[in-house]
Amino acid sequence: MAQLIVRKVDGQIAEILKNNAREHGVSAEEEHRRILKKALLKKPEYLSFKEFLQAIPEVGKDADFERIPQISRKVEL
User: Fold this and answer.
1) H-helix or E-strand containing 64?
2) Regarding predicted confidence, which is higher, 64 or 49?
3) What are the tens digits of pLDDT across the range 5-63?
4) pLDDT number for residue 12
5) 22-36: b or e for each residue (b if 16 or more CB lie within 10 Å)?
6) Which of 16, 25, 47, 57 could cross-link to 52 by cystine, CB 3.0-4.6 Å?
7) Are 47 and 55 within 8 A, CB to CB?
8) What 3 state SS string does 9-70 have?
9) Across all residues in the chain, what is the average pLDDT?
10) DSSP code of 49?
11) What SS3 class is residue 11?
């Protein structure tokens, strides 16, 4: 196993890490390992197109998105 030393950590960050470790019932070192593992080894979450569409919040009414008929014009091709 490799060792990692982190210097010049802000005191507030160090305190939060210690508190998190205490809350999870592990040592500060174990808490650091868990945080690094979670941050570096997590797999990106990809949504299918269907899941993406289902995640869109329902806003407005269908009438808000209706197309307004346009006046036709002559087009030369």
Assistant:
1) none
2) 49
3) 989 999 999 999 999 999 999 999 999 999 999 889 877 778 899 989 998 888 878 88
4) 95
5) eeeeeeeeebbeeee
6) 47
7) yes
8) CCHHHHHHHHHHHHHHCCCHHHHHHHHHHHHHHCCCCCCCHHHHHHCCCCCCCHHHHCCCCC
9) 89
10) H
11) helix
